[in-house]
Amino acid sequence: QVQLVESxxxxxxxGGSLRLSCAASxxxxxxxxxxxxxxxxxxxxxxxxxxxxxxxxxYYADFVKGRFTISRDNVKNTVYLHMTSLKSxxxxxxxxxxxxxxxxxxxxNEYDYWGQGTQVTVSS
Length: 124
Known about the structure:
By secondary structure, the chain is mostly beta strands. It has strands at residues 4-7, 10-13, 18-24, 33-39, 46-51, 58-60, 68-73, 78-83, 92-99, 113-114, 118-123. The strands form two sheets. Strands 2, 4, 5, 6, 9, 10 and 11 form a seven-stranded mixed β-sheet that branches. The chain has a four-stranded antiparallel β-sheet with strand order 1-3-8-7, with no helix packed on it. The protein is globular, with a radius of gyration of 13 Å. The chain starts with a strand and ends with a strand.
């Protein structure tokens, strides 16, 4: 079991950067595959980025690849999403997700644990 709390969202101008954090509870953080999803108003929740247990492997959605970086600190029990070159279309609620699995997954129903989300608004 794990509880997830996102932070770091806010208002940023197009072209700017933000770093989101997801703090996880528990002693077994390194046993969880972690991911970020986002959901814009009226749209489905979409996979953004995922990271393996050790952080050695990452996977990104095409629409953020080259702009966003996911990382994790298994000592601090925290996963990060560093977002650069932000666009208006990046505006969404960003959710942290975790699952006891071996592989990074991209579907909502493949993650058992979710944070409440943090709002990212990109102005232009």
